[in-house]
Design a protein that fits this description.
Nucleotidyltransferase, domain 5; alpha/beta; five-stranded mixed sheet; 238 residues; 7 helices
Length: 238
């Protein structure tokens, strides 16, 4: 199955093309450009470099979060548009699952940490079992101190939330390991790999049914809630 995968849930974003168990091409950037500026340009360039056309695709995969609200919206909207235009199923890949899966065969639990802003990190815990990462916790959004307090070394951490937790992580000592830079950030190729497995197992969804995975309301939703509460408090809650 030929799959296009999109990763835009964090500052690191890009796309990948997978043909069965062969990663045909992958493009990754971790720079301060919005995904709306670069994601489709990245896909177009990848198609050209790999000699593929959109009609060659048999499925799509997209990183659905948690992560940057804006980045997730761009990725999900792009996958929806392509899925509708091409009539393709979409594999919704949780971002923390994909991040943990960049470290296959890990001999210790793996904890991906993503910067959630507002003094929190997104995290979960995984262990490698047979041929995949198995999630042991729910997806969480916690302050760094509470996140680190849940960890029991030995454990491997990775993700852009490591910096927000670094001083706290240092207290865990040598049993704690931080993944090297090349394995610390999300990889579109891994999203493609997980998405391919989901599609093969019949776990894809229609473009219309594709939804992001948010662990908390966006700032826009919070503003609406505050405005509604203010209207009710002033007696103007029509």
């Amino acid at each position: 199955m030929r799959v296009l995968a999109l990763e835009s849930a964090t500052l690191t974003g890009g796309a990948a093309l997978l043909d069965g168990d062969r990663l045909v091409g992958e493009s990754v950037l971790s720079v301060a450009l919005t995904h709306s500026e670069r994601l489709m340009a990245t896909v177009d360039r990848l198609f050209q470099d790999c000699g593929w056309r959109a009609k060659d695709l048999e499925g799509l995969a997209v990183s659905i979060g948690p992560g940057s609200f804006t980045g997730i919206r761009v990725g999900v909207a792009t996958a929806k548009g392509l899925g509708l235009a091409l009539g393709l199923p979409v594999a919704p890949v949780p971002t923390l699952d994909a991040l943990a899966s960049t470290l296959p065969f890990a001999d210790a639990p793996v904890c991906p940490l993503l910067d959630a802003r507002k003094g929190e990190v997104y995290l979960s815990l995984y262990r490698w079992s047979q041929d995949r990462m198995v999630r042991l916790w729910d997806y969480l959004a916690l302050p760094p101190a509470a996140a680190v307090a849940r960890l029991e070394p030995p454990v491997i951490v990775l993700g852009d939330g490591v910096e927000a937790c670094r001083s706290l992580l240092a207290r865990l000592g040598d049993p704690l390991r931080i993944a090297p830079p090349a394995r610390r950030l999300p990889a579109p190729g891994v999203v493609a790999q997980l998405g391919h497995a989901m599609l093969e197992a019949g776990q894809g969804v229609t473009a219309e049914a594709l939804l992001p995975l948010y662990l908390r309301p966006s700032e826009a939703e919070l503003k609406v809630g505050r405005a509604a509460a203010g209207g009710e408090a002033s007696g103007d809650g029509r």
